[in-house]
Structure of Hydroxymethylglutaryl-CoA synthase:
Amino acid sequence: MASHWPENVGIRAIEILFPSQYVDQTELETFDGASAGKYTIGLGQAKMGFCSDREDVNSLCLTVVSRLLERQHVKHSEIGRLEVGTETIVDKSKSVKSVLMQLFAESGNTDIEGIDTTNACYGGTAALFNAVNWVESSSWDGRLALAVCADIAVYAKGAARPTGGAGAVAMLVGPNAPLILDRGLRATHMEHAYDFYKPDLSSEYPTVDGKLSIQCYLSALDTCYRLYRKKFDQQQKDTSKQPASLSTFDAILFHTPFCKLVQKSVGRLSFNDFLLSSEEERTKQFPDLERFNTATLESTYFDRDVEKAFMTQSANIFASKTKKSLLLANQVGNMYTPSVYSGLVSLLISGPAQELVGKRIGLFSYGSGLAASMYSISVTQDAAAFEKFVSQLDYVQPLLNSREKVAPEQFSALMEVREKNNHAAPYTPTGSISALFPGTYYLKDVDALHRRTYERTPTISNGVH
Ligand code: HMG
């Protein structure tokens, strides 16, 4: 049992997984008959990862959890809580968490709290918060927690299809972490909205009101940011210090349905800073923008002048604090629940680890429907520990480079196979096993009672990939 209140609770290790195959967005534009540049420049997407019928949410979670435990040499008995966030539901009753318990069977550890959480892309953040809350609570028994998020983001043919993707992230949570969740600095906004939802339980595809979803995202961002600023200012003991603003963060990461929206979001936060600043600050920090003095948040979600002016105003902030976090989102697409954590991984691998030591990272997590939070993470001051933590991610870039490009025709055909056989039973998937990365769990078959069986591709010498 723990004998004292745990300090510096946060992420002690992070593992990411993305599909081994992708489609090129330029080729997809041509294939879809979209105008050249719509997906690549208009949405800011270069490649889109996808899964064949060999992978489902269970297999993604089995793979990412196994890899994390193997790479970190964590014993199965050391885990006391495991939370899963996902919106890729394959069973209305049986949780993904219970499927993951297969991995713990041999160790005999069945004393693991936590279960699945669903609300669109927000489930991963809910899983992380639950894991952190457990470690910080009187229920904590001194062991580590795992927060797992995974999704396969697929859309019907049409405007939303290029904003798909897939992936999984597992985070090991405990005290004395290199990435510490700041206490008392979570700002949440939840509201009822039908912007993106999955009412057809027989289909993997969502019902989407694209324009409304963007408005909901931006308005939740406004609300969370203003609340975060307020909570931050209340925590500052020294009232002579500058109030919170974009300068509070050394890096700022966002849930990323497509990269262009993130660039606009940085502009949106700058617009909030502008509206919340005094006249004197406005003149100093926002020269030549006085024409927006009377603008309001509600009237400007799709106001081109405001958007352009504040994207230009915040261009340096985007370049220095956010752009690096978009690597995986640009190369893989929307992962749904893991999206903002793929941003965290992208940031961590973007340059020398020392540059992030002691820094503050802001994160905005959004899930349609809607649930959103802005919170912050402080990077440890312990440079050696942080470098070691980051070096565990050395595999990410080579793995990304080793993916196989698939022609849009083949991608479209594989989407049809998924679509046709979604929930089929009995069913034996036809997707290639050899196309998967080493150490990947895959769906072997589904029997007549819808029971799913998984196998794993061979691991290579280090036992991980
Ligand atoms: P659309 O409406 O067909 O696209 O689909 P558009 O006409 O708005 O074009 C997109 C951008 O490309 C525009 O840029 C065009 O101007 C530009 P903007 O003007 O907005 O800056 N464009 C071009 N640029 C260069 N060259 C060209 C060209 N042509 C056009 N030739 C939409 C876009 C996002 C609506 C669609 O893809 C969609 O519905 N996606 C899914 C919904 C979504 O991603 N929403 C985001 C916020 S909600 C969210 O994040 C939650 C989510 O992750 C789900 C969850 O929570 O689980 C989705």
User: Anything to note?
Assistant: The two ends are 35 Å apart (CA to CA). Residues 210-235 form the longest helix (26 residues). The mean pLDDT is 96. Residues 10-456 form a domain with the Peroxisomal Thiolase; Chain A, domain 1 fold (CATH 3.40.47.10).
